Every structure is written in C-alpha cells, then in structure tokens.
Fold:
Amino acid sequence: MSWALRFHGVGNASSVELGSAMATIERDDRPWLTIDCGAEGLTAYLAHYGEAPRALFITHTHLDHVAGFERLFVDSFFDPARCGRVRVYVPAPVVPLLHQRVGDYPNALAEGGANFWDAFQVIPVGDAFWHDGVRLETFEARHHWPRTAYGLRLRGSVVWTGDTRPIPETLAVMAGEGEQVAHDCAVRGNPSHTGIADLEREYPRELLDRCILYHYVGAAEGEALRARGHRVASPGECVALAEPTAARAEPFVPEDAAPDAAPVASSSASTTLA
Structure:
C-alpha cells in the first residue's frame, strides 16, 4: 500500500497563481482524505482527479480554505450517489464557524426544500477521529483566535499544520515519529502566520529537515525560501509518504446500509455525530 500527499494549492489568500492552500492524502494513487476546500484548490483537485472530493478535513474557516463549498454543495446535492455521503470532518469548535461562513445563506436553493448540509455528512471531531478504518489526530494551531484553527496528524506519516504561528511544543509530540510536516511559512511572519525567521528560531534542525513549506506569497518568495535551504511545496506536487503507524480498525458498515453506502466513521475522542 502506498501513501502520498498531493498539494493542490500552496499560496496564501492573495496568491491566486499558487492556488489556495489545500492538499489530499492519497492511498494507492487515489484520493483518500482532502484537507480544506478553497476555490482555486478545488479547481485543481477537479482537474487532477476528474471528480469532487468524497471526504474532507477542515482546518479553519477563512475563505481561502472553504470558498469551494458552494460548488461542492451543487455537485453533491444533485447527485444521488453523493448526496449526504460526502464526509466533512470538522473540529467541534469550528462547526458553528463553518456554518456561519458557508451554510447559513437563506434558502440553499431558490425553490426551497433543501438545507445546505443535506449534501454532506458533517462529523464533528475531537482530539482524534476515524476515517476509513484509520485513526487520525487533530491539534490546535495558533491562528487569529484560540479554538478556531486546527492541524491534522496521520501518525508516522504526515502532519499538516494548517495556518499557524510556530507551535514547537505541539509538534514535539504531534510530529514525534518522523512524520513529514507540511508547515505554513512565508518569508515574513505576522501575528497569525509563520515567517522563515520564526521557523528557523523555534524548531530544531531535525524537524526543519522534515518540513515542507506552503502558504507563501508568490513564486519568487518560494524561490527565496528554497535559497535558504528549505523544502518548498509547489502546486500539483506529490510527495511520497511513509506507511502510517496509526491505529487501524475495520470500517463499520450498518447491516441495513445500502450496498454502496460509505462506512460509518467512529471517533475515539469526545463526541462524533453522523
């Protein structure tokens, strides 16, 4: 079994040419779990895979990370094979923020009769959750405000920080098994994002060597980061990952489920709603 991380977009909110920061964890060359749903990132996803995502994890609700949801609603709601089956894993504190951003427009359809979230299976998650029989972990990032932005860990394989300032204490644990770390980083930092000086000051060399930088400002800035000896992601790049060491279990399928129904995800943390 092979695992990989495909970057659909690597830019910040103003770097349209680099695409909104978004990636997909692939298993055996197929999309397995997509991280975020920005507008440009979704366009790149569709161009590569030829179909919309079937499972997503949402890090936070700034529009460069969720602006693709309206397109995803239309694609899913009018497709009987997809409607209500597109899993959206959302850290529980982020659920109301996501609804405010993308789900609360009056009357999802002009003719009525539909709620925005009818198209999806929204699963609030805590510190960990199960997807397709594999346990993933979440952690709080440092972005704008407490409990509004989160990162994702596939143990032993990859960590996605999401938008964040440096989080050395967190990554000492969450990236403690040799995972490759996709990390927010631009040339200059600010109160909600990491700059290269912050990264180099806060992290040990061993961790820096495992970092792949994204969420930067333009191609020239990417080259500047590379010139300092760092690995920098490019749009469309696919990075091979190690086999995860995360806990595994057989996905649970209810006895009365339709033959093509997706397995039900369960959670080992707090409350998971399906």
